[in-house]
Specification:
The complex is a heterodimer of chains A (about 110) and B (about 120).
Chain A: E1 9-13, E2 18-23, E3 32-38, E4 45-50, E5 55-56, E6 61-64, E7 70-75, E8 84-92, E9 95-98, E10 102-107
Parallel strand pairs in A: 1-10
Antiparallel strand pairs in A: 2-7, 3-4, 3-8, 5-6, 6-7, 8-9, 8-10
Chain B: E1 5-7, E2 10-13, E3 19-24, E4 31-37, E5 43-50, E6 53-56, E7 65-69, E8 75-79, E9 88-95, E10 105-107, E11 111-115
Parallel strand pairs in B: 2-11
Antiparallel strand pairs in B: 1-3, 3-8, 4-5, 4-9, 5-6, 7-8, 9-10, 9-11
The chains are: A mainly beta (about 110), B mainly beta (about 120).
């Protein structure tokens, strides 16, 4: 199965860090890991991507396990605007395989 | 600048009719993707274009689905003899080109297709 697996939902308190896990046990050496998020009634938006090394950008950090079979998206301080469905995606060749996503609820 | 646009935003059609969905990508983007998102589900990859050619059509669910892209810009997704299971939101994304971020896709708002 080329898809990724994620928990269906998670909750976080506002201004606390959030760690969103993803399993991609069948990933191959050249496949990238991407994260997108989708706010209600909108198309997905890019968050971050990586191959082997951990990655940081203004939105989030991506921690990739040494064996690359799992990764974790880290939001350093959750805000109410971060409430969305977060998709972990396996990018192989020309295809992007989306999982079913994690619905993140941020509690004020 | 202008983002990815799709039309129509909503389409209701009767079972058995053909429909055409349109995507206008961001100017200069060479890559274009079509996805389908059924209610409460993740995105299902349909087809990818690089320029006008479609090197990967493996995601199209049946031969009732086809897509084309002309002039390296606008793309249309056609569904013939629509079935109720085709009801979904069809999302288009573009990437690459001037920005150089070939792995970052910019999504349109989608077309919600309802087959009655």
């Amino acid at each position: 199965d080329a898809k990724t697996t994620q928990p269906n939902s998670m909750e976080s308190n506002e201004e606390e860090p959030v760690h969103l896990p993803c399993n991609h046990s069948t990933i191959s050496g050249t496949d990238y890991i991407h994260w997108y998020r989708q706010l209600p009634s909108q198309g997905p938006e890019y968050v971050i991507h990586g191959l082997t090394s951990n990655v940081n950008n203004r939105m989030a950090s991506l921690a990739i396990a040494e064996d690359r079979k799992s990764s974790t998206l880290i939001l350093h301080r959750a805000t109410l605007r971060d409430a969305a469905v977060y998709y972990c995606i396996r990018h192989t060749g020309n295809q992007f395989y989306f999982g079913t996503g994690t619905s993140l609820t941020v509690i004020p | 600048g202008a983002g990815v646009s799709q039309s129509p935003s909503n389409k209701v059609t009767e079972k058995g009719k053909d429909v055409e969905l349109r995507c206008d990508p961001i100017s200069g983007h060479t890559a274009l993707y079509w996805y389908r998102q059924s209610l409460g589900q993740g995105l299902e990859f349909l087809i990818y274009f690089q320029g006008n050619s479609a090197p990967d059509k493996s995601g199209l669910p049946s031969d009732r689905f086809s897509a084309e892209r002309t002039g390296g810009s606008v793309s249309t997704l056609t569904i013939q003899r629509t079935q109720q299971e085709d009801s979904a939101v069809y999302l288009c994304a573009s990437g690459g080109g001037l920005a150089g971020h070939s792995y970052e896709q910019y999504f349109g708002p989608g077309t919600r297709l309802t087959v009655t």
